[in-house]
Amino acid sequence: MNTSNTPRKAVILVSGGMDSAVTIAMAREQGFEVYALSVAYGQRHSSELEASERVSNMLGAKRHKTVHVDLRSIGGSALTDDIDVPADGGEGIPVTYVPARNTIMLSIALGWAEVLGSTDIFCGVNAVDYSGYPDCRPAFIDAYEALANVATKAGVEGAGIRIHAPLMHMGKGDIVREGVRLGVDFSQTVSCYNADDEGRACGHCDACRLRAEGFAKAGEKDTTRYV
Fold first, then answer.
1. CA–CA distance, 58 with 66 (Å, rounded to integer)
2. Which tens digits make up the pLDDT trace of 114-124?
3. For the chain, what are the domain ranges?
4. pLDDT digits (tens, 9 = 90+) for 128-160
5. Which helix (H) or strand (E) holds 29?
6. Distance between CA atoms of 102 and 123, rounded to whole angstroms?
7. CATH architecture of 9-218
8. 169 Cβ contact partners less than 8 Å away, ≥ 6 residues apart
9. Are 14 and 52 spatial neighbours (Cβ–Cβ below 8 Å)?
10. Is the pTM for the entire model greater than 0.70?
11. Binding site members for ATP
12. Binding site for Zn(2+), residues?
């Protein structure tokens, strides 16, 4: 527990979607000063990046930074290549999985955390109602935290690095309820894999389906803007 009057800094990965918005709100409730980090990695649309900045400001981030990484140059995903976004995830790991995305994002967050003097990184990954991505599972987060603590000055000589994934074992309905409790305005978030330039959702992709199911399970009105 922080016993000084100086708030603890946390770097939080922000995608512009509902999960990362709730993660910011949870970190703020725990007393962290939020440094929000988004990554422009060559995704299909810019509306989620616009939502990232909007949501970060709305939820009281001390600062929001966007770092550019060109994952479109290697492709391999429906989000970074000329591959159609499927109407549902199907079996196995779907084509919307972006190779190495979360590894790269956490690495950038780790670097910024060291510069800021922060020992805490938050990400909104979930392994209950999710698309089956391997880098959203507990084993990945545990392994990355172990890596962070042998790969950094903060890990070797300092207080160590902790990777927080507070939504990991929550269903989408639980995430919606938690967001409502914390006052998150979900209408400002963008989750859709195939959103238009105005951030309106397609209503058919895996992300839209999971989001809609979350509102239904929580018994809350779906404030998503659809095409």
1. 16
2. 999 999 999 99
3. 9-218
4. 878 789 999 999 999 999 999 999 999 999 889
5. helix 18-29
6. 9
7. 3-Layer(aba) Sandwich (3.40)
8. 127, 128
9. yes
10. yes
11. 14-24
12. 192, 202, 205, 208
